[in-house]
Amino acid sequence: GAGVRVAVIDTGVDRSQPQMAMIHYAGGRNVSGSGTGASDPRDCTSQGHGTAVTGIIAAPQVSGVAFYGVAPDSTIIPIRQTASDTQGGNDVGIAEGIDYALSVHANVINISETINKPSIPIEHALSRAAAKGVVVVAASGNETPNSGVSPVPYPAAYAKTYSTVIAVGAV
Description:
Elements lengths: L4 E6 L7 H4 L2 E2 L3 E2 L18 H10 L16 E6 L10 H13 L4 E4 L8 H12 L3 E5 L25 E4 L3
Helix pairs in contact: 3-4
């Protein structure tokens, strides 16, 4: 992970957690449109989703703690796109997050939020990312055909269009 700049578009990061405090950070942004201002990427949810994702990517190895990230020497650029536990991703915020990540020279962009329809703002932002060779790792979502919500997750569905987009899910 050394030398790699990873933007995390999610709920922000709680830097007060011991492992999170040891991560290398570069700036950060709040593109949620609410909260404490554009320069404050603190985690805004009680679940700490953005903090957990950041840990999976970059938590350093600490004596006595079994868990550490896959790229502990990477630099994290936290981008808060949601404003609360009840607000999910939206296309304008995700696109703004991608564009901010590009403006601060992210090499990889992680998007752990989904929307359930195609989006022109997201597609244009992903096109700009692809033109710069930036890899975008996008969540494939949590919906099922029986949930009443379209199970086609965007921006992950754009992996069909852009070779730089990787759709990722968990079982």
